[in-house]
Amino acid sequence: MNDTLVLLPILIPLTGAPIALLLARRPRVQSGWALGVLLTALASSALLLAQVWRSGQPGGYEMGGWQAPFGIAFVGDLLSATLAVMAQVVLLMGVVYALGSKDKVIGYPAFYVLFLTLTTGLTGAFLTGDLFNLFVFAELLVFSGAILTAISDDPYGTEAALKYFYMSLLASAALLLANGVLYVSYGTLNMADLAARVAADPTQPLLAAGIAFLLVTFMIKSAVFPFHFWQPDFHAAATTPVSAMLSSVVVKLGVYGFLRMTTLLFVEQAPAIGALLVGLGIAGVVYGGLGAIGTHNAKRMLAYSTLAQVGFILVAIGWGTPLALTAAVIFTVNHSLIKSAMLMLAGVVASRAPVKTASFQVVQGLGKYMPGAGALFLAGGLALAGIPPTNGFISKLTLFQSGIQAGQWWSLLVLGFASIFTLIYVVRSFMRIWWQPVVGFSYGSTTYDAAEIKAKPGGDRLLAPALLIGGALLLGLWAEPLVSLATAVSQWLGDPAAYITAVLGG
Fold first, then answer.
1. Is 292 left (phi over 0), alpha (psi -120 to 50) or beta?
2. Which residues contact 393 (CB under 8 A, 6 or more apart)?
């Protein structure tokens, strides 16, 4: 089972980070190194995905030659390989954006080092085969994300980082407790072995506690309602390439956890878990949509939007049918591309404002100086709202088809109505930035007169969001590859015995 290709997407950014630190005195070389490392890591992830998809069998690696479940196992099945590729595509675009960003934090010696450790943590969490290693990689992810936010140019960066850190500390405690009670109950933390033992003996008294702790962990990781309150402040204060990563792919760690819980670890308990996810998902869609409509800042709006969009994914996971799981995978990938692009575009606009902020009061009317960004923002907004011919339309279409197939009429009614919220806040923000006239505003102790306000001549570059929006349009016009991949992932998730056999070898 020792396939080194499973380790490369983790080892490449992990070994690239300390080398990047050694290059700290040569910023251009360091940034080029980080870009090259992520390109190489993405290539290895894509090769892993192609190999797994073609063979129909997961790749695996047992550290030290210790056979699972006794040793540390890494598993690259179709779900984990797909999410690894998704994450590294967006993370690569984050580095591309950083290369063209005017933020001071980009020039700090630790920025690209932390970006590579962030990549290591997220990729490792997707590819690990046991729950304790998931805890280890999640901790690396938290420390990297919190520090990257704390060193932001925004004066509220430290406050936002502390909120994120303490909420993540709660999630870490819950995950560690889950590890403890499940190990006491079943004597293993290897996910394949644990799934087999839970299926054989679901009467252990601490099983419910283990499930509850895992649910809390993944709810916090994905900022699921009602564990969402830290997210708007966090994403508004973090520097743009960081907020774009954390709101698009890092929150998908929770989605990954829910998929593993309902299709592998706790199959017998999945209906009850699914019912909870449907309820929380619908609440998130409604609350997130209303929050996005009512907020005063473009980045905060997109943070609330993440709460709503993750809600759609949770509903699909909760329904749990093969088509619904296909919709969940499609939605997860498509949302990652769209949301990262939209946050980058909000950053581009803020970078050219008289005061660097995405507050609607400050950026209103400045879009007339940025027509290219406006065209991209409109296309991304339509994708977020699920309007054809974008990939967001494919996500919503598959989700609603799965709901109709499952007969979930009341849920579909609420989701259909709440989908209108997305169109409202996208159009509203587009109109304020690109169509309404510039207005005067006060920021701190300084007052800016409307007649004197103009966009700065230079700002962050549009290359990264343009590439992501291009990908969103491509996957809307040519959706067949992603739909086929998501269907294959759904089929794999529907047969947990295949995962268990592949990991345990018999």
1. alpha
2. 383, 386, 387, 476
What is the extent of the structural domain holding 334?
4-504
Contact indicator for 438, 349 with CB cutoff of 8 Å? no
CA–CA separation, 494 vs 323, rounded Å?
11
Residues 6+ apart with CB under 8 A from 221: 138, 168, 171, 250, 251, 253, 254, 257
C-alpha–C-alpha distance, residues 92 and 95, integer Å: 5
Mention every residue, 6+ apart, whose C-beta is less than 8 A from residue 143: 117
Strand ranges in 340-445 using DSSP code E only, listed in sequence order:
441-443
3-state secondary structure 191-246: HHHHHHHHHHCCCCCCHHHHHHHHHHHHHHHCCCCCCCCCHHHHHHHCCHHHHHHH
* Contact of 399 with 327, CB cutoff 8 Å: yes
Q: Tell me how far apart the alpha carbons of residues 300 and 382 are, in angstroms, rounded to a whole number.
A: 18
CA torsion through residues 70, 139, 229, 316, sign: negative
**Which of 176, 81, 183 has its CA nearest to residue 135?**
176
Half-sphere exposure of 146 (CA within 13 A, CB side): 17
Nearest 5 degrees, angle CA 421-CA 427-CA 431? 145
d(CA 396, CA 419): 9
In this structure, what token pair is assigned to residue 108?
Answer: 């700090």
Q: Where are the alpha helices (DSSP H) in 407-479?
A: 409-434, 463-477
pTM over 0.90: yes
> Is 89 in contact with 77 (CB distance < 8 Å)?
no
Q: What is the pLDDT along the chain (506 residues), one digit of tens a residue?
A: 567 889 999 999 999 999 999 998 898 999 999 999 999 999 999 999 999 999 888 888 888 777 777 788 899 899 999 999 999 999 999 999 999 888 888 888 899 999 999 999 999 999 998 999 999 999 999 999 888 888 887 777 787 788 888 888 899 999 999 999 999 999 999 999 999 999 999 989 999 999 999 999 999 988 888 887 767 767 777 788 888 888 888 889 999 999 999 999 999 999 999 999 999 999 999 999 998 898 888 888 998 888 899 999 999 999 999 999 999 999 999 999 999 999 999 999 988 888 788 888 888 888 888 889 999 999 999 999 889 899 999 999 999 999 999 888 998 999 988 889 999 999 999 999 998 887 777 766 677 666 667 777 878 899 999 999 999 999 999 999 999 999 999 999 998 888 888 888 75
Domains held by the chain: number: 1
Residue with the two structure tokens 């054989």: 200
